[in-house]
Amino acid sequence: MAINNICVVGVGGVGGYFGGLMVHSFASGKQISFIARGAHLAQIRERGLMLNTSSRQGLVCTPTLATDRLEDAPTPDLYLLCVKSYDLADVAAQMSRNINEKTIVLPLLNGVDIYERIREELATGIVLPACVYVGTHIAQPGVVTQKGGDGAILCGPDSRHPEFDAAPLLKLFEQAQIQCTWNRDPYPAIWEKFMFIAAFGLVCVASDNTLGEVMADAEALAQTRGIMEEILAIARVKGVNFADDVVERSLAKAGNFPPETKTSYHRDVETPGKRNEGDLFGGAILRMGEEFGVPTPVTRQMYAMIQKNRGISSCAS
């Protein structure tokens, strides 16, 4: 199957990074649509998206179409789904009206139940469980900057479509100089990513510290380790297989980012009135812990502290 029509839904840090690289690599021959909002969209329409990666600065990436209406985009061969988790249900419902049975949906967002949540809205298409490793953010409207991470994607098969041939998708990413790895069981990687982003996200927000500051503080580092061990216990009850050193390896990943790096959750909390992914991390861990009988005292402590600091009387459980 040829992948000639690509739609990037959510052109924030992650969508802007991968979508921008695709636009820059495929100057012609492919239709690439960007779905964005507000001032960011206005700048993309006027000047294109400016992308600064760890190796290349000032890439001007002009998509075929930039819009805030998903229905304006032609039905794609590939969706890069890069929205925040709190927008997932609404966006997936919109996608259900602009999809066919061969459309590939590659979700590049945080969470361990993203496939199931997409399938609640999408009865057709090929949805590939995935995780992504990149530290990016919107530096200003129209500009996306990479601050760390490998810029890599890992994905695996849709259980509804075991016959799916991933070769064209992997070739597409190779041509765009994007590292994409296919794994027959992507869930250990998805859970390991969740372990990293949830633990550091919760502790960074609770302590109001950067990644480097958390790593340098013995108490904060112990709290991060505690949350990771709680996530590990839940995942093992669910049958996810990890190497014995997964917690140490996850802690060490923070060294791949500049010390001043803030998690996306932290940046969102700092923006008055902006929605954030606290429930995806703290709320989800507490709910899964209760469901599977796994104690989660460190997560409960950190999430309660965050809720208190934000003026919320009690935390979700």
TrEMBL record:
Gene3D superfamilies: N-(1-d-carboxylethyl)-l-norvaline Dehydrogenase, domain 2 (1.10.1040.10), NAD(P)-binding Rossmann-like Domain (3.40.50.720). It is an enzyme of class 1 (oxidoreductase). Residues 189-308 form the Ketopantoate reductase C-terminal domain. One of its GO terms (molecular function) is 2-dehydropantoate 2-reductase activity. GO terms for cellular component: cytoplasm. Keywords: NADP, Oxidoreductase, Pantothenate biosynthesis. Pfam families: ApbA, ApbA_C. Pathway: Cofactor biosynthesis; (R)-pantothenate biosynthesis; (R)-pantoate from 3-methyl-2-oxobutanoate: step 2/2. It catalyses: (R)-pantoate + NADP(+) = 2-dehydropantoate + NADPH + H(+). One of its GO terms (biological process) is pantothenate biosynthetic process. It comes from the Bacteria. Residues 6-157 form the Ketopantoate reductase N-terminal domain. InterPro entries: 6-PGluconate_DH-like_C_sf, 6PGD_dom2, ApbA, KPA_reductase, KPR-Related, KPR_N, NAD(P)-bd_dom_sf. Its EC number is 1.1.1.169. Catalyzes the NADPH-dependent reduction of ketopantoate into pantoic acid. Belongs to the ketopantoate reductase family. NCBIfam families: apbA_panE. This is 2-dehydropantoate 2-reductase. It comes from Candidatus Moduliflexus flocculans. The lineage of its organism: Bacteria, Candidatus Moduliflexota, Candidatus Moduliflexia, Candidatus Moduliflexales, Candidatus Moduliflexaceae.
